[in-house]
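Annex B. Sample input.
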Amino acid sequence: MDALLIDRWVGGGDRTSIHDEAAVPIAQQAARALGLRLRLPEAVIESLTLIVRELATNQLRHARYGVIAVRAVERDGVDGVEVVAADGGEGIRDAGASLDGGPGSEEGAGIGLSGVQRHADELDFDVRLGIGTCVRARRFAARVAHRREVAILGRSCEGERVSGDDATFERRGSSLVLALADGLGHGPEAQEPARRAIGVVRASPEASPADLLRDAGEGLRGTRGAVMGVVGIDESTGELVHAAVGNITTIVRGGQEGRSFTGGHSVLGAGSLRPQRALEERLALRPRDLVALCSDGLRSRLDLEAARHLGSRHPLVVAQHLLDRFGRANDDATVVVAR
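Annex B, continued. Sample output.
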């Protein structure tokens, strides 16, 4: 179990530890109390309690340890609740079956993640195979402008328990920031610079991608170094801003068109010289365009064309397809997908 990762996922505030079935109604009551305080419609509150029940039940079935937290969110003047479920389990091995509720989902008698997806307005995932999972389910009092859903899916290379990759996504109003870092090498010595680089993004997600890379480079002096890609998306205008240092690949795909970005051969934190400011590139996104960041644990011939048959499936399904098809067993591999 990675307690630091779970604390990062859940953050501050009230949380309910899910150790046994008696904890499930306690977590549900916390969701109901917040919904009542926000004066959400009863149907929305019922959906929230169902979401909590299914996420907590999944934790009891599949994880060594779980936590449920609820927090108030707001969009365009409409109140809502975000349910955060973080656990120390093995991760979601078959995203398609879990979200469909079909064979292989291992959801038992409940409705599981398929029901959570139906009752939530938006659903994000952060899955570290063999380490843990975080699910974020948002439900609003009324219809709101839809934001891109995000999925992170990562695994360590064969023979390693710890991955040298790390990633995050951060939301602030209409801004969405995606970041993926890859520490040089494998194991704990690679994990440290990757986590430090991602910590810079989490601390100042409002900064530009180039500024975040500059600050990460400063913070990684004295480590073995890392490479990192950062994407900022303005959900209100559709503008994407990309910057990267090193071989993190970002691919944007929509319809028959696609474009890829990378950061060249530099390394954050390597050497004592101040790195040059990373180049920022801009692109106008369409509403259903898919954005994917990939570490070099995925083969360089990766192409989102291979995921076209998935249509409008959740980003987690796309991430698993890319990892399964293009991932290299002899390296850590992580994918961040947003759509």
